[in-house]
Amino acid sequence: MHSSDNSLSEVSFQWKFEFKLFPRKLFNIKFSGLLNQWWLTCAASFLWSIWLARNELVFNKKRLSFDEIMFLATLHSFYWVKASKEGCIVIESQWWSNPRLCVPCLKGVGPRFGIVWHAPPCGVIKFTVDGAACGKSGPAGCGGVLRDHSGKF
Q1: pLDDT tens, position by position, 98-150
Q2: What is the count of structural domains for the chain?
Q3: Residues facing residue 146 across a β-bridge
Q4: Average pLDDT value over all residues in the chain
Q5: Are 53 and 15 contacting, i.e. CB atoms less than 8 angstroms apart?
Q6: Is residue 139 part of a domain?
Q7: Which backbone phi and psi does 129 adopt, to 5 degrees?
Q8: Residue 49: inside a domain, yes or no?
């Protein structure tokens, strides 16, 4: 068999997983509403970034590392999510560390910065609560979690 410079046989990604099951596992994760839209956007961005990395290797002989591919996927996801919902604020600094903390806010409602859990002393149970309301007489909710010094309960 003749091998050219652009041969797919020269392309080797060394990732081990059952590729037939990948789309089913990737797209069968159940979120609701905006979080589901964000998940699908991130999944598509990840697949697109793999495709772009493959093109770099085939056409430009440049091999991207896994970290570079993940950086590009995260960057593309951030911009796509940011552009997908007008009126939402997506906090870039939190996107890089934990995208799930990038809860969209309506314009005029500031995002919450610096939310960090601090462990209680050993032998103490900490009860952390939070709440939210939509307007003065709109729907509201609250919740809480009990955790020990190791974060478990």
Answers
A1: 766 665 544 444 445 555 677 888 888 887 777 777 667 777 777 777 888 88
A2: 2
A3: 127
A4: 71
A5: no
A6: yes
A7: -125, 160
A8: yes
